[in-house]
Design goal:
This protein is an all-alpha fold and 440 residues long. The chain is built from 17 helices and no strands. It has helices spanning 11-41, 45-81, 85-121, 125-138, 142-157, 161-184, 194-218, 234-266, 270-286, 288-306, 310-337, 339-344, 350-363, 367-382, 386-399, 401-412, 415-439. Helix 3 packs parallel to helix 8 and helix 14 (367-382) packs parallel to helix 17. The chain is globular. It starts with 10 loop residues before the first helix and ends with a helix. 59% of the residues are buried. The mean pLDDT is 88.
């Protein structure tokens, strides 16, 4: 495949053509958790609470895999744009190997910390036992996750977004078929409960990785992945981690935020912890179109920046900002039009639904403003400027929102945490615009 189309086609059609497969991929990826949660919710509300407590560590594993994957994506795209094929090969090969190592380390670490982590947020033995039953099995697939995401980012870096979409769909279809079978055990199948949800997700991820490997054999990408490219050249590895570490922190910060907010909300009731867990599952789905657009433009930004097309990079950024703003306004409208239905997907408890509806109404007021932060951060990652992107995420997920949630919860109870979300998005939007302009 010739990558010159990334700097030759008109920007809007190019952004849309790159983003649409990624939007579909993001939708499918989001549905992994949505589907698991939907079927787990049929077991009990305690099972849903257990899933919500595992989510921060689960998100951390994905954050490390995706964050370093972004480093692979941006590095390969940059070197291809600069017509440095040898270093593009090195970035792909070394990145894949290093993310394998990350996955192995995450398997051991995440399983080891879970008992202590869970006891920090709950004293209910039944909830903790269910959470461990899910976590120990789900985290055993960490290497599969890191390898799958590495291949995803390599295919994306050369503009082949459709393979990502097809791979994700195959894995999701596997997951949605296996979920009810492994959780409830119809016919000859054993009922494994919440553990079955973990197995279904893991098998789906194996299928996704298998599709990438098959596609690599049938239709090789323009970069060569192999032992020859495994020379750990300082400049290449430095670029991978220079982009990958800030991107990983960007992705991991929501886990820190969720844990901090769980601590605040647990002081009021475990129902609020459940509502926050439900919101984050919905948020992933609501933000997926915006995030799909960002995934689509990262290789475009990196390639054009490497090729010296700076004016085109700015045009891609402005187009992205307009598209993501429209998407997030639609998310706000959806959150006000059918909030009962959205929250009701995960719980039948009327009191919990009402608390969730109230949370969704308040938090969604900041969705449109968040488009600025999302667009600026994504464009900066594509440019290889990981540190400014990290500064935006630190403001959005730590520096502003945690103190705001603490303060507002003192003034307005648990509802104050929801107000902290929209306040943070407004403040961070202004900060993001300033950081982006200063960095480019």
């Amino acid at each position: 495949m010739n990558q010159t189309f990334m700097k030759e086609r008109k920007v809007l059609p190019l952004v849309l053509s790159m983003s649409l497969p990624m939007v579909i991929s993001m939708a499918v990826n989001s549905l992994y958790n949505i589907v698991d949660s939907y079927f787990v919710a049929k077991l009990s509300e305690k099972a849903m609470t257990a899933l919500a407590l595992v989510y921060p560590v689960q998100n951390l594993i994905n954050a490390i895999a995706i964050g370093f994957g972004i480093g692979i994506n941006a590095s390969v795209a940059f070197y291809l744009g600069a017509e440095d094929r040898e270093r593009a090969d090195q970035a792909a090969s070394c990145g894949l190997f290093l993310n394998f190592i990350h996955g192995a380390a995450l398997t051991v670490f995440s399983i080891a910390i879970m008992p202590l982590f869970l006891r920090t947020f709950s004293r209910d033995k039944e909830i903790i036992d269910m959470a461990l039953a899910y976590a120990d099995r789900a985290f055993a697939f960490s290497v599969v996750i890191t390898l799958g995401i590495s291949f995803e980012k390599i295919f994306q870096s050369v503009g082949n977004m459709k393979i990502s979409m097809i791979s994700m769909i195959c894995g999701f279809v596997t997951n949605i078929i296996l979920d009810p079978i492994l959780i409830f055990g119809p016919g000859v199948f054993p009922a494994m409960g919440i553990a079955g949800a973990a197995y279904a997700t893991g098998i789906g991820q194996i299928v996704t990785l298998a599709v990438y490997l098959l596609c690599l054999v049938v239709s090789p990408v323009p970069v060569k992945i192999g032992r020859k490219g495994l020379r750990m050249e300082k400049a290449v590895v430095g670029k991978l981690y220079g982009i990958g570490i800030p991107a990983t922190l960007n992705m991991a910060l929501p886990s820190l935020l969720i844990s901090a907010l769980n601590g605040i909300l647990a002081g009021f009731s475990e129902t609020y912890v459940l509502v926050l867990g439900v919101y984050y599952k919905l948020q992933t789905f609501i933000y997926l179109t915006a995030n799909g657009i960002i995934q689509g433009i990262r290789p475009l930004v990196g390639y054009n920046y490497g090729a010296g097309e700076h004016e085109r990079v700015e045009k891609i950024y402005r187009t992205t900002l307009g598209l993501t703003m429209g998407v997030m306004l639609a998310g706000t409208l959806l959150s006000w039009a059918v909030p009962q239905w959205l929250i009701g997907l995960f719980t039948a408890n009327e009191q919990t639904v009402q608390i969730g509806v109230n949370a969704l109404h308040i938090i969604s007021l900041g969705f449109a403003a968040s488009a600025v932060s999302v667009s600026c951060s994504g464009a900066l990652e594509g440019l290889g400027k990981g540190t400014p992107s990290l500064m935006i995420s630190l403001a959005r997920y730590v520096v502003v929102i945690i103190p705001a949630a603490l303060l507002f919860s003192r003034l307005a109870g648990a509802r104050g945490v929801w107000y902290g979300f929209c306040f943070t998005e407004l403040v961070t939007a202004v900060f993001s615009g300033f950081i982006y302009r200063k960095s480019v």
